[in-house]
Design a protein that fits this description.
The protein is mostly helical. The protein is built from eleven helices and no strands. Helix content is 67%, strand content 0%. This is Transmembrane protein 236.
């Protein structure tokens, strides 16, 4: 009887391999169709590009993808590295990079031929981004089980109000006077006081979050569902940037190069684990700051092709990062008289 862990492993690996190969096949087939149209229905060019896509996927699977998966799953070669994900790095390089490259190449070919027939706006681009998100989700939920309740997966990770219990603590001199001749009992009394306070807070927290009233079904913390939500939220800004590149006037201009290059650099953030402290810095340096510059330039050149909401998001992300990380450490902002 095959165990549930083996079945889950097979499902994960099949899904990740499909996400690796399917976008490459679709994008290169679309590029082959474009080349056939530009060369007056030259079927030889079409089948050469299709054959090249099959050869590429076969080669990277045998010589790169399978060895990386073996090292990560079987030998645990990367187990000592806890702040990056080698599988997602391999996927970004082997699948996302060539797909973005062929999308840019399709624009360049059409501009050189003075033909505008395909902007790669829907299926190929959406498929590439969706598969990228799927790989991220698989790596996020891989440590979690797929069946049964989520109890015990995370402890005290439920957002909600908590009790701040303030209690007046007597001074050391008062404790010495009330102690038994200064034989160390004040320390024991203080320890008991803090222990009881911590116990009462923990009891309140557990009772508050274990409410079983008529709306108890709404009071749920599900980390597996949250992994899906967090993954899509993580990619929304990059998805919007790539969407702008699909607009006709932008797609057939030189702006497609910085857009896709910066989008790819932003996608490299997925290499870092979601709980890494490095993720905030990478988010500002590889996404918010360059996206802010590009979006402002796009609005100046093409008008409001991108929503102003994303411009404000990038601006606020950069300003708050600089303020809370750097400026709050200055002496002027550490004065007690300030707000």
């Amino acid at each position: 009887m095959v165990s549930g862990k083996i079945i889950k492993l097979i499902l994960y690996e099949l899904l990740e391999f499909a996400c690796l190969s399917v976008p490459v096949f679709v994008v290169m087939e679309r590029f082959a169709s474009l080349m056939r149209c530009l060369k007056s229905d030259n079927h030889t060019t079409y089948w050469l590009v299709v054959a090249a896509s099959i050869a590429y996927v076969t080669t990277v699977t045998l010589f790169f993808w399978v060895p990386v998966k073996y090292l990560t799953l079987k030998t645990n070669r990367f187990s000592e590295v806890i702040h990056w994900r080698p599988v997602t790095l391999a996927y970004i390089i082997l699948s996302t990079l060539p797909c973005f490259g062929f999308i840019i190449a399709s624009s360049k070919v059409q501009v050189n031929q003075d033909v505008c027939s395909d902007t790669f706006t829907e299926l190929p681009v959406s498929l590439v981004l969706f598969c990228l998100i799927c790989v991220d989700i698989v790596e996020r939920i891989r440590p979690l089980r797929l069946t049964g309740p989520a109890d015990g997966l995370r402890s005290y990770d439920v957002p909600g109000p908590t009790l701040t219990h303030l209690e007046q603590v007597s001074t050391v001199s008062v404790q010495v006077q009330s102690g038994d001749g200064g034989n160390g009992s004040p320390v024991r009394n203080g320890s008991a006081r803090f222990s009881s306070t911590h116990t009462s807070n923990a009891t309140y927290f557990n009772s508050y979050h274990s409410y079983s009233g008529p709306f108890a079904f709404l009071w749920v913390s599900e980390p597996r569902h949250q992994a899906f939500v967090d993954a899509f939220l993580f990619w929304f800004d990059m998805v919007e940037m790539v969407r702008v590149a699909g607009i006709t006037e932008v797609y057939y201009s030189g702006w497609i190069f910085p857009i896709y290059i910066l989008a790819y650099l932003s996608a490299l953030r997925v290499i870092v684990t979601p709980n890494s402290a490095l993720l905030s810095t990478l988010g500002v340096l590889s996404q918010d700051l360059p996206f802010l510059v590009v979006r402002v330039c796009l609005i100046v050149v093409f008008g409001y092709v991108t929503p102003v909401l994303y411009v404000l998001k990038n601006l606020l992300a950069c300003l708050t990062f600089v303020y809370f990380v750097f400026m709050t450490k200055l002496r002027f902002f550490n004065r007690g008289s300030l707000f």
